[in-house]
Amino acid sequence: MRDGDMLFYGNLYDELEEAGADVFWEELKRAAAPYAAGGGDRARAAQARVDETIRTLLARDARFGYPAPFCHKGCANCCRQLVYCTGEEAREIDAHCREHGIPIDYARIERQLRYVDFDAAGDHTGATTWDDQPDADRSCVFLGPDRACAIWPVRPLVCRAQLAEGTDAHCRPHNGVPDPEAAGITYVEVNYQISAIFTIHRDSVKKTMGRLLLDLR
Fold first, then answer.
1. Of 33, 22, 30, 27, which is closest to residue 12 (Cα–Cα)?
2. What is the mean pLDDT of residues 131-143?
3. How far apart are CA 110 and CA 210, in angstroms?
């Protein structure tokens, strides 16, 4: 969610109202600090922190008897929507694909972006007709025929944080509008981490992963 120069991930905007401004900004700054202090590998380090945060919180939930996320190799409904990432993540993906000989279907990315609205600055406006494109084009270019992610080690932050509860039947939004039946496992700690990074990289995040990869050709 956009709020001026802020890019809030997940339901973090609701946290601003619930926690109060002082607590909210302190938590956001705390989440941003390790990333802002990081070096050239800070994108990978941030992904590792998000992974570890999720593992820790899922283990805590398991101790209290909550079910594990539905997500597993092959469910992949979340892989059929528009993806955002930072410019640093896009460069990591590009380098990973070059190193491992993973092809990038640039022609499909170009077709997909015809269904995404961009302003004069090349930023996604939030409007999309993604689900109006041919079904064969809707999935991520890195989703393989086995319905597995071809770039799993360097997949973007947003792909790491999507956790379905109970079923994947309602994971996909329709033209940017979430399915009202969707039920996900969300952690405010992760929302803070991703929101801090997205805000630092708001200029690249608003381009979408597809456009960033096209620029790196």
1. 27
2. 96
3. 8
CB burial of residue 112 (10 Å; 0-12, 13-18, 19+)? buried
The C-alpha atoms of residue 9 and residue 158 are separated, in whole angstroms, by 9
pTM score above 0.90? yes
Specify the amino acid at residue 217. R
What is the structure's pLDDT at 39? Answer: 81
Helix ranges (DSSP H) in 20-86? 21-36, 42-63
Alpha-carbon span 149 to 130, nearest angstrom = 20
The Cα-based distances of 140 to 156, 187, 208 in angstroms read 12, 25, 12
Token pair for residue 54? 């999720």
Residues 6+ apart with CB under 8 A from 44: 92, 154
